[in-house]
């Protein structure tokens, strides 16, 4: 009976150690992600539009424009 009790105590201690290790790893990962987020440069919310070279829809039609397809 004493051996069984000792085995249960050892198993409980091992379980506690594993849970503490997982919590430590989670905390380190969260701190690392927070540091990365704090040091990363953010892009502007609305970047400047890139001209595509196409005609504007609904604009005036010029005589030299090709007919639409």
Description:
55% of the residues lie in helices and 0% in strands. The chain is mainly α and 69 residues long. It has a domain at 1-41. The radius of gyration is 32 Å and the shape is rod-shaped. The chain starts with a helix and ends in a 30-residue tail after the last helix. The mean pLDDT is 83. Residues 43-69 are annotated as: Disordered.
State which percent range the strand residues make up.
under 5%
Based on DSSP secondary structure assignment, what is the total number of beta strands? 0
Number of helices: 1
Order of helices and strands: H
Overall mean pLDDT stands at: 83
For the biggest sheet, the summary is: none
Low-confidence parts, pLDDT < 50 over ≥5 residues? none
Radius of gyration: 32 Å
The helicity comes to 55-70%
The N- to C-terminal Cα distance equals 90 Å
Structural class: mainly alpha
Shape: rod-shaped
Tag the structure with descriptive keywords.
69 residues; mainly alpha; rod-shaped; single chain; 55% helix; 1 helix
SSE layout and pairings?
Elements: H1 2-39
How would you sum up this structure in a few lines?
Residues 43-69 are annotated as: Disordered. This protein has 69 residues and is mainly α. The chain is built from one helix and no strands.
